Amino acid sequence: MLNKLVIRNYAIIDEISIDLGAGLTIITGETGAGKSIILGALSLILGQRADSKSLFNHAEKCVIEGVFDISAYQLRPFFEEHDLDYDQHTTLRREITTDGRSRSFINDTPVTLQILKQLGEQLVDIHSQHETLALNTGNFQLMVTDSICKHQPLLTNYHTSYRKCRQLQSSLEELREQSRTAAAEKDFLQYQFDELEQASIREEEQLSLEDELNTLSHAEEIKRTLGQVFFSLKEDEQSLDTQLKSAVHQIQSLEKFSVKIAELGKRLRSLQIELKDAADEMEEIAAQTGTDQERLLLVQERLDLLYRLQQKHRVPDNAGLLSIFSEISDKLQSFGSLDNEIGQKEQELSALRKQLMALAKELSADRQAAIREIEKETALLLKEVGMPDATLKIENHILPVESFGPNGIDQVSFLFSANKGYPPVELNKVASGGELSRLMLCLKSLVASHTALPTIIFDEIDTGVSGEVALKVGNVMQRLSSSLQVIAITHLPQMASKGETHLFVYKEVSGPQTYTRMKILNEEERVLEIAKMLSGDDPGANAISNAKELLER
Fold it and tell me: Could you tell me which CATH class the domain 1-123+482-520 is placed in?
């Protein structure tokens, strides 16, 4: 329920604060006084678009704020889903800056316009003549049917399962697409895997092979040079080994005279040992080194294979090749797990579809059973609003069970005839907007008697009716207000007399500026306003008397 509406700096409104109660609130005023402007401001906190042209004073921002009692609407899950603070008295606020930018808030928490709109649609239903188009939509007609069925837990269960089914179907299609892509890739990856596996790559192999290739390629040079060096170190008459032995012998004779000389002698003897080891190793290498053309070719072929694989996979060494090999192996294994996952999800989807089929059949049976009740109750309400010969007929086309949609397997169609002797036809073929408005009033009244509807605002839906019919429409609207908050903008005195609260919208000129104002009428002011609606700006005694009679009725 809308408890309070505050409008600041909007259109020709500088500031208005409206306190609203339960029951039926009537809003009247002269044409152009600003009734539609107030609705326009309210629509902003319900998520409609806005721009800086809406500003009253372009130097200040526009603020629209609505305080709602949401205790009856079971909206806590919405607040939890969007990480908002839940409060039974929730405030929706919209701010429009001087440059046309807009900010939205729920309980002082900034939100997107879409979230504001989603919540607003669950709090207020603004209904005007052109919005009777909603009558033609299958969703609205199904909503009316479901409200009479009172199977909300079943419908919620179906919606939850349907969303899971759609998500599972989407996930399955993605996996199947991956499988189709994988099938084209698998052969190529298998070829690469086999090629790398047959290569039997070892990480340190390349350095060893490159060293061996250098040795084999220069075997004669290595053998010849090492032999020459070995000869100069040990075999020559003036070999370095011979000269070093002589030096060691000479130094030994002096060691007893000086500690430093003794240290030098020790170092020379170490050099003598190192020289012997180096010479022996040279001799060994020279002896083992020889030209081996067959081995040379094998090493070259092995290195050529490694270089080619590294270039092919764009890696610098064998470590990179081993990493590629591991990745390809993992991918090939994932193909098998992908097939398993597809099979598992297909089983899940099949089970879920069976569950949905059962729920859809149960929903359909409930709806079929409720159709006659809706037709009967609507006919009674249509008589109350001055349409005794009007008929509403509901047709339910049941789709094949496997063709279930977001709301099941039912396609509900409302057919309507306003006059006796004429067969019911689709609502979009009914010419009179007044007739459709009264039908909408009856349907919403019927729904309200079975479920909790949001605040309903009727914007001059009484166009085309007058006199006793207007009183009857007012009676239905008054009864509707016993179940929910109803706000009606009207130009008919018969309708205006039905309200528990009467708000009057008027213009006030102050200096060079015109302002829209609003006030709650007291009993005396209300009699005068209804009298003016009956006879004009200067009502006589008869108009005053008629106004009092309407209010008493």
Answer: alpha beta
